[in-house]
Amino acid sequence: MMTDPSPLLDPLLEEDLPREAGDIADACASVPSSSGYRAMLQTLFRGKMSGAAIALVIRQVIIMALGVGSSVAVSRWLGPEIVGRFAILIFVTQGILGYFGDLGLKAALIRKRGDLEPTELATAQKVILGISITFAVVIGALLPVALRLVKLGPENYFPAAVFLVLLIVRNQRMVPLALLERAMRFKVVSAVEAAESLIYTVLLATLAFLHKGIWCYVVAMGCRDLFGSLAFNLIARPPFHQFSWASIRPHLGFSLVYQGGSLLNMATLAFPPIMIARLLGKNAVGYVSWASTLSLYPLVICNAMARIYLPAFSSAASDPALLRSRVEKSLRINASIAWPACAVLASLSTPIIAYVFTAKWFPAQPLLYAYSLSAVMSAVALPLSELFFAQGDAWFNFRLCLLWTIPTWTLGTYAVYHFGLFGFAVFQAALQSTWLLAFFHARKLEGLRVFAPLREPLLLSAALVLGNLLVIRSMPVSSIYRLAALLAVEGVICAAFLMRMVVSWNTVGGLRATPGPEVR
After folding, report:
1. Global pTM value
2. N or C, fewer C-beta in 10 Å, the chain?
3. d(CA 184, CA 110)
């Protein structure tokens, strides 16, 4: 995004920088008048955007595959006690620092119009380092109190201290990442992040097989974070020898709003490692962590594409018809990817748990149902959230976060105290109804159809659920080979459905408006 890249930057980085000033939305070039989603992608993906989108999707696929492998290894060779202990330690040590370590400066640097000055970059790097060290020291001093609060013994002090140091190391990637993402160097970013995932998965699986307990996570995370931070800094080579508060003062307004949403998200995510840990123990936290992690796999491609939604919607903000078309088709593609996968995961959860993760995870099955519903709603809520940001309506997203945080700590506590994990699963499923507010709020964009693009994915998902229930009742899935065959067949069905929609995007029967009454 820099018109005159700093000579301090890596020549490879300088070579690939876009030559037009502006933020990410400006890098999207001009947009043709066609409302077809394929035309949108062709425009966005041209040149560096093409490499960025492809690299992001490949990265997510690799990380998903490695993540599944590590989940299976941990599930088979470690127990809920170790997984729950790790989830609690991560929250205690990295929960707060992970959200506030960069003060939102990475996002602010990416969004800035015009050039990034060397003094600005060096100051941001030093501020992030200072904030990270300060938070780590404070949290380290409070570790005895924090660990007693979550019912963990003194043997957890050393692993917790290592996690604090590792997050300081990890935060030193923020400024280099801002440089690379502004330059659309997502091929480099994706390669490093995929290598990180490979390092983490191999070490975690190996140490889990050797039954090394919590040290599986400590060693795997340590090697991953050290490699990643070193690699990003060597590639981007951000300056570090200058300092000026005035250079980052313009970013503070955006950072405060950004961190407000982060604070609410952190408070919501803090519920299992604090309240569930105190009321039900760390095994219960392990079940919650396992179910939530497994339910996220259907979203990996959606999350990869999420980085282009904000620039795509922002560049179409002055053309309501084009903006409507992009939002509708983004809703449809996200639902087409995630909803069938969630339907298969939930409806085949019994044989999947039995033959892949082992029977010790059956107590988490109700939680898996609830978090699968959460993934269903999140898949279509993601484009809507980016739409609100593109329209300058960030406060609605903030209010939506409030509607998650307050009920979680009030009604969620009541549900866990009186009904245990099953009560929390029911509450978590009911909480997804708040996303309906986003659907209705999005309809303020005149002519936007929010529900109509979701009909076909909903029908396919319902058919998969009913078909799987019928298969399980009529011919039980009695081995992992039958399960693999069934998953392969349904994978082909889902791929054919997705391909059919790709072909139909530029046809008359696609998502373009047609005469007659609209279904909204």
Report:
1. 0.66
2. C
3. 10
